[in-house]
Amino acid sequence: KETVVSGIRSTGKLHLGNYFGALKNFVQMQNEYNCYFFIADLHSLTTHPTPADLHGNVKNVLVEYLACGIDPEESTIYIQSDVPEIAELYLYLNMNAYMGELERSASFKDKVRATPDNVNAGLLTYPVLMAADILIHKATKVPVGKDQEQHLEMARTFGNRFNRLYNQDYFPEPYAFSYSKNLVKVPGLDGKGKMGKSEGEGNVINLSDSPEVIRKKVARAVTDGGPTAEFQEKPEAIQNLFDLMKIVSSEDTLAHFDEQYNKMAIRYGDFKKQLAEDMIVTTTPMREKISEIAADTAFLRQVARHGALKARESAQKTIREVRELIGFRSF
Ligand code: TYM
Questions:
Q1: Is the CB of 142 under 6 A from ligand 1?
Q2: 195 assigned binding-site residue
Q3: pLDDT band at 88 (very low <50, low <70, confident <90, very high)
Q4: Residue 331: band (very low, low, confident or very high) from pLDDT cuts 50, 70, 90
Q5: How confident is the model at residue 50 (pLDDT cuts 50, 70, 90)?
Q6: Looking at the keywords, is Aminoacyl-tRNA synthetase present (predicted)?
Q7: CATH 1.10.240.10 residue ranges in the chain?
């Protein structure tokens, strides 16, 4: 069986972007592959969370993983900071990651633009830590959304460089994966760009949002005055809502509103109502499980412990071999 690794940062509630870009594939892949799914709490340190927030967010992602259907008997579910071997591999990989390439990464440049007063070294070497996450289990498939594609390319670069340096074919090449033909990019509700927390709470639909909250957020989504000519190309804000409908609604529903749009007969109120209802249908089974699982602390503790043991076993094997390759040998 091929090995699969993926993770989500512990920075708050999970949203439809996380679900359709990553989680939905996690759930499907666990029957087919040797899967490691983790909570990227080390990555979330770049923004300096308080200890209480960090702990709460880690728990939140763990609960939502389970609520989405990741099965701790099928997959190894663990918290990144429970596996210190990852940090060790990160240190080794950092020796062959160069300033220039790290500075050129699109996500780094975005962060520099967004938070110019917090350009720390952890942010710069974020892709190296991500490469360590993947290479520590020698994974080949990484289910992620479109926004992570460049990071996967960097993971291949760092793995290959290690292989060349030590004249080995040690790390296999990891590739971004999705069951859909292309990697997924779920748009947000603000009329521009992807769904993401940094664009504000009104831009995202969380898996835990109540039906009332979903209706309100969708009702407030950016639209325009309506089409002004038949078969007009849709402006970005409208196209985004259609893309969301394509993800959560049936083909018939999508075709109906598309036709209405093309005939200049669309009523955005009805369109948004339908979109909100289909989002509610998508999220309800998960939302209902979230509160139930969150209350079961003993179960969560057991999942995290069991996962950490399994993940460390795999990570320790890699680190033993890597140390040998590097030349850390006992006398
Ligand atoms: P993060 O925490 O930002 O997002 C987690 C996953 O959700 C996907 N995603 C989206 N997909 C489609 N449309 C969207 N609007 C959208 N928003 C988020 C992301 O692509 C990702 O798959 N660096 C990673 C976490 C990470 C990781 C790893 C992933 C750390 N180490 C090793 C894979 C392997 C991140 O910040 O994801």
A1: yes
A2: yes
A3: very high
A4: confident
A5: very high
A6: yes
A7: 208-290
- The CATH homologous superfamily to which domain 208-290 belongs is Tyrosyl-Transfer RNA Synthetase (1.10.240.10)
Q: Is 320 annotated as a binding residue?
A: no
Cα-to-centroid distance, 17 and ligand 1 (Å): 9
Q: Decide: 6 in ligand 1 pocket, CB within 6 A.
A: yes
Tell me the pTM.
0.97
**242-257: pLDDT as tens digits:** 999 999 999 999 999 9
Sign of CA dihedral 325, 326, 330, 331: positive
Query: How far away, in angstroms, is 126 Cα from ligand 1 center?
Result: 13
Residues 6+ apart with CB under 8 A from 155: 127, 130, 131, 134, 135, 142, 174
Taking only the tens place, the pLDDT of each residue in 213-246 is: 999 999 999 999 999 988 889 999 999 999 999 9
Tell whether ipTM is more than 0.90: yes
The correct answer on CATH 3.40.50.2300 for the domain covering 3-186+296-326 is: no
Q: Whose CA is nearest to atom 19 of ligand 1?
A: 145
Calculate how far, in angstroms, residue 203's C-alpha sits from the geometric centre of ligand 1: 17
CATH 3.40.50.620 segments of the chain: 3-186+296-326
CB neighbourhood size of 213 (10 A): 15
Return the structure tokens found at 125. 């070497």
Let me know if 75 is exposed, middle or buried by CB neighbors in 10 A (0-12, 13-18, 19+). buried
